[in-house]
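User: Thanks for the earlier help. One more: Sigma-70 family RNA polymerase sigma factor. Can you show the sequence and predicted structure together?

Assistant: Of course, both are below.
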Amino acid sequence: MDKELSLAPQAFERFYADHHHWLCNLLRRKLGNSMDAADIAHDVYLHMFRKGHIPDTCDCRRHLTRVAQCKVIDLYRRRSLESGYLGELSLREEPATVSEESRALVCEALNQVESALRRQPAKARQALLLNRIEGKAYREIADELKVSVSSVEKYVAAVQKTCRQATLQKNE
């Protein structure tokens, strides 16, 4: 029959004193280190305390062993999960950091391209943006702008050439 802790808190203290050393030794042999053994033993007694009962004297060690086995399984599961998570994190690339100088150069190049685009006719500028930004085919662009496909090809080629020249002039 189980003894209620609320009726005899000294019973839990006695239970702990009688079996703690034995449980720690058992776990130390099973786990191979005393730190994990102490942690698991603590978890076992905490579990027992929260349950609010102590097994009969003849069942104490068997019950402690069973709870300890469950806690060891939990430990291995948690470590496996942590290991998998850390493995996934190690496979991810670190986010690239961009220096202020590189950022300034990119902004300057974008400003030059924008300036070159503003100097182009509206239809030519729109044709390039529809093709490069929205991924539309020349036929779709021609229908939208109400021009021929060959006109779209010429617009896109002319604007690309102008943008290339603007970036090359900057680099010289």
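User: Great, one quick takeaway?

Assistant: The longest helix spans residues 60-91.
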